[in-house]
Amino acid sequence: MRLLGAGSGKTVLTPGAVQDSGIPALHDAPAAVDHAITAHAVSDIAVEGLTLRGFSGAGVYAHTVTGLRLTDVESDGNRVWGIYLRESTALEVTGCRASGSQYGGIALAFCSAAEADIVDCEVTGNAFGVFVDNSSRARVRRVRSHGNAAGVLMLHQTYPGEPEGGVTDCLVADCDLTGNSLAAGGDDPDALGAAGPPMSGIGLAMIGVQRVAVVGNRITGNHPGGPSVMGAAFVVGSSADFGGSASADNTVEWNTISGNTPADVQADESGLRMVNNVIGEPEEAT
Question: 285 in a domain, yes or no?
Answer without folding.
Answer: no
